[in-house]
Amino acid sequence: MTARPLPGAPAAEALLAETAARAARLPNPPHLVMVRLGEDPASVSYVRGKDRKAREVGLSSTVHALPETTSQAELLDLIARLNADDAVNGILVQLPLPAHVSEQAVLHAIDPRKDVDGFHPLNVGELWAGRPALRPCTPAGILYLLDHYGLAIAGQRAVVVGRSHIVGRPLAALLLERDATVTIAHSRTRDLGAVTREADLLLVAVGRAHLITPEMVKPGATVIDVGINRVPGEGGGKAHLTGDVHPDVAEVAGALTPVPGGVGPMTIAQLLANTASAAEMQASRLLSR
Ligand SMILES: NC(=O)C1=CN([C@@H]2O[C@H](COP(=O)(O)OP(=O)(O)OC[C@H]3O[C@@H](n4cnc5c(N)ncnc54)[C@H](OP(=O)(O)O)[C@@H]3O)[C@@H](O)[C@H]2O)C=CC1
Ligand SMILES: Nc1nc(=O)c2c([nH]1)NC[C@@H]1CN(c3ccc(C(=O)N[C@@H](CCC(=O)O)C(=O)O)cc3)C=[N+]21
C-alpha cells in the first residue's frame, strides 16, 4: 500500500482564492506589514515568499528589513507606529529574533487586532478558550488542508509531536476544538513510538529529519509532516529539504503530506487569510466608532 499524497498546493490555492474574493470586497486592499531582523537565509526566503503571494491575491504588503543590530527599543518603536497606523491591518515579526531582543516583549507589543500570527497572549488565551480570534497560521492551515481533503477530525485520536508556541500547542488547541482526542508528545515523552502508534491522525512538528519511522505509525493513519530540515548535498552538492517523517512511512500511512509542498504553502495562505480577517474586523470597527 502506498499512502494517499496530500499536496498543499490545491488546498492553498482554494484558500488563496477565498482570500482574494474577501480582499476585493473591502474598501481598500488588506495591508500586511512584515518585519525581519538580519539576513538569516531561511527568514529572507520565507518573508519573500509571503510578500510575493500577498501581492498575487490583491493584498498590499510592506517588508521592513532591519539590521541584525536593531535594538529592542527601536523595534518596539516601529511596532507602536504600525499599531497606530489605520492603513496597516496586519503585523508579522519574523521569528527567531536575535538574542538581544526579547521575543516576549515584541509579541506583547503587537496590537492583538493586527496580530496575524496569533502569537499575542490575548489571542493565545482566546484560542484555548475556544473563542473567535486570529489563529496561528501553520496550525490553522493544517486544519484547512485536512478539511479540503475530507479527512475526519472529530472523534479521531490525534497525536501532536512537538509543543512549541508557534506550532505544537496551538495545533493541539485547534484539534481539541474540533473534537479530536488529543495527546501532545515532546522530547521528554517515554517510548514515543508507543504513543504515536495510537494515532489515527499523527502531526509532527519537531525539526529532526526522519524522526518518525514506519514502525511508529498505525497502518492507515493520516500523517501531517510539519518539519522542514535542510540536508546538505552529498559531496558539496545542492542542499535539499526533508521532513520529520521518514519516506518509508508512505508504505504504512493512509495519507501523508509531502515536504516541501505540503504544510509550508498552507502557512502562507493562512497568513493572508488572517490578514483579510484582521482588515474585515478593523473595517467594521471603524464604521462603528
Ligand atoms: N511548514 C511550515 O509552515 C512550518 C514548519 N516549521 C518546522 O517545523 C519544525 C518544528 O518547528 P517549531 O515548532 O518551531 O520547533 P521548536 O524547536 O520550537 O520545537 C520543537 C519541539 O519538538 C520537540 N522535540 C525535540 N526533539 C524531540 C524528540 N526527539 N522527540 C519528540 N519531540 C521532540 C521539542 O520538545 P521540548 O519542548 O521538550 O524541547 C519541542 O517541543 C521545524 O522543522 C520547523 O522548521 C515551523 C513552522 C512552520
Ligand atoms: N512570525 C513568524 N511567523 C511564522 O509563521 C514563521 C516564523 N515567524 N518563523 C519561521 C516559521 C517557518 N515558517 C514557514 C513558512 C513557510 C514555509 C514554506 O513555504 N515552505 C515551503 C518550502 C520553502 C523553501 O523552499 O525553503 C514548503 O514547505 O513547500 C516554511 C516555513 C513560518 N514561520
Automatic annotation (TrEMBL):
GO cellular component terms, A-Z? cytosol
Pathway(s) where this gene product acts:
One-carbon metabolism; tetrahydrofolate interconversion
Q: What is its EC number?
A: 1.5.1.5, 3.5.4.9
One Pfam family in the UniProt entry: THF_DHG_CYH
In its keyword annotation, does this UniProt entry include Nucleotide-binding?
Answer: no
Subunit structure comment from the entry = Homodimer.
HAMAP family for the chain: THF_DHG_CYH (MF_01576)
The protein's job, in short, is: Catalyzes the oxidation of 5,10-methylenetetrahydrofolate to 5,10-methenyltetrahydrofolate and then the hydrolysis of 5,10-methenyltetrahydrofolate to 10-formyltetrahydrofolate.
Protein name (Swiss-Prot/TrEMBL): Bifunctional protein FolD
Gene that this polypeptide is encoded by: folD
